[in-house]
Each structure stands twice: as C-alpha cells, then as structure tokens.
Amino acid sequence: MTPTDTLEYAENVISRSDLSATVKNWQQQHGRHNLPWQLARDPYHVLVSEIMLQQTQVATVIPYFERWLESLPTVTTLAAASEDQIMALWQGLGYYSRARNLHRAAREVCASYNGKIPDCPAELRKIPGIGPYTAGAITAFAYDKSAALVDGNIARLFCRLFGIAEPLPASATSKLLWRLAEYYTPAHDNRIYAQGLLDLGATLCKPRQPDCPRCPLQANCVAFRTGRTAELPLKKARRALPQRHGNFLLSINETGLLLEQRPAGGIWPRLWSLPELTETAAESFKLDGEFKHTFSHYKLQAKVWCAVTSEAEAPYATATCRRIPLAQLSNYGLPAPIATYLQPYLTVHLQKAANGT
C-alpha cells in the first residue's frame, strides 16, 4: 500500500460509512460502558485515565485511578499537589515520567486555560505531556467531538483489517495508520466510534488468538481472508537487552528505613529508593538478598546489602538520604521492585511495633 492509493484501497476494503456504522453498533451492544472514567465524562478524568493507560492494562489502572481521584479530584488539586504526593499515588504503575507529565499538564491547564481542559487536539497538543493520541482521546471521550486517535489496540486492528504488512512501530507505518484514522473518524458520535475501536482491539482483535468469529468486521478483514491474523501486525525484531548490576543498602530499625531520593536523571528519577552502593563499598556489608527488574533498555540484576555496624552506614547519612518512619512510607513514592523487596521486612517491623516489642 502506497501513500497515493491508500484511501482508495481502504475504501475497497470497507467504506467510511460502513466502518463507522458497524463499529458504533457493535460498541453500543457489546462494548465496555462501565469503566470508572466513562461515568462522568469529565475531561480531567479522561486525562488522568489516558495517561495511566499508556503501557498499562485496564485492570491494573482501575484501582490507581480511583485512589487518585479520592486524593486529587480536580485538575486544580493536582496542579497544587507536591511531587512526593503524586509519586506516592503512582507507586507501582511504573514509567514514572507519565506522572510528572500529568503534573505538568495540570499546571499548564491552570496557568494558561483557567483550569479548563481544552476541547480540540490543536490546543491540547500545546500542553506538556499530551501527545496526538491523548489529545484525540480527550476530544472524543470528554467532548464527543471529531478527532482521530491511534493507540496499540487501534493500530493492531487496522493492520489486520486493511492487511498492512509493514512493521510496527516504524515511522512510515505510524503515519499510514494516522492517515487512515483521520479518514475514517466520523463527524458525529465520535465518542462511541472511538470507544468501539478500542474495545474491539482490547477484547476481540487481541495480540494473540484473536476472537475472529465474534468480530463484526470479519467479512471485511484482509488478514482474516488471507490467513494472516497471527502474522499481522509485523513487529520489528527486538535486540537482546543488556544486563547491568546494582548494589543497594538496606538499613531498617525502630526509627525507620533509610531511603535516598534518586537524582533527576537515570533510573527512578526523584523516587525514594534504598541508597545505592558502589561495588567497592558493598564489600563492607553483608549480603541480604537479590532481585531482578527489567527496564525498557536493560535488565537490572541487583544485590541488597545490610550493615553489620552502624558505623559502616555513616557515609550514607547524606543530604539526599533520610530515615523515614515506617508508618509514613505511604507518603513517599518507591520504585516497585524496591517496594516489593521491602514488603516482608516492613510487615515484620510493623507487627513488632503494634505488639510493642
């Protein structure tokens, strides 16, 4: 498929009117209607949910979304919140830059738009942290206006429906998908249509074992007709991730847990983590345990060390380190693998505190 014949080819697969009608009809009968962010149609709710849903499954997001709105119910309260509060609420969702982008977006909305989230993609794209998909999602779901959107679900659906045999996430393929999305976006009832595309991708046109018999687009789908549903969309070959090693200090006592705020650059920026040790410094401590964690660009093989004497910890009582009472840890954002590693220790110490031992 070339740029010059894309839309003519696509119309031969399925017309604009047929795709819109089919998707909207299916969504109203079989789509998702009770997700928490669908209930109020509030632009702020849509903004929060869409940022959370980036690279995260719906089932995982729901409890985070509900806790977030309990603490930060409006864009104004988010703009006024501290970074520690935001990181604590986000803890466990990963990709923490999303939380910071959300914070920056709220501040910009309050500073430049008098606290009202814009209703068109062009204005939304001016706000830090809001990209093409999020701008389209807010326009469609909060305001029910015409705006194209392409995420992983829609990209997969379109690649199969139109038989696009180009790899994702290549730039040329992305441009092609956005061109199709813009062409097929209806002028009216875009909320239902956009939700229908997402629901089809999430519930039927799944990455593995798509449920083609239940799909309303089966008769039009090029991948189904040609037996390529398992093949499409094509993926770029992934390179093997390199492995890196890390060393962390565990120091926990009756006064609290020693944590270090990470620098702005590198992994877990500005989150509170166990202090990091150099290989040489780790030799002064006793090995407590290990954990593994996979980042987007490498795999971390980490060792956790504990001090035999308090004197050995002295060099780590720095300006960036703080001993935090265990009862206050929920106010601090910890990286998920660190929080998971600490959980057994925190349970024991909190039980001792409750028993007065």
Q: What would you say this structure looks like, in words?
A:
The chain is 47% helix and 11% strand. The protein has helices at residues 6-13, 16-30, 36-39, 43-53, 58-71, 75-80, 83-90, 97-112, 121-124, 132-143, 152-161, 171-184, 190-203, 222-225, 279-282, 310-313, 336-355, and strands spanning 243-250, 252-253, 256-261, 272-273, 276-277, 286-294, 299-306, 321-324. Helix 4 (43-53) packs antiparallel against helix 8 (97-112) and helix 11 packs across helix 13. The mean pLDDT is 91.
Summarize the structure in short.
This protein is of the alpha+beta class and 357 residues long. Helices cover 47% and strands 11% of the residues.
How far apart lie the N and C ends? 72 Å
Q: Report the portion of residues in β strands.
A: 5-15%
CATH class of the largest domain: Mainly Alpha
* Helix-strand category: alpha+beta
How many individual domains? Answer: 2
How many E-type strands?
A: 8
Write down the secondary-structure element order: HHHHHHHHHHHHHHEEEEEHEEHEH
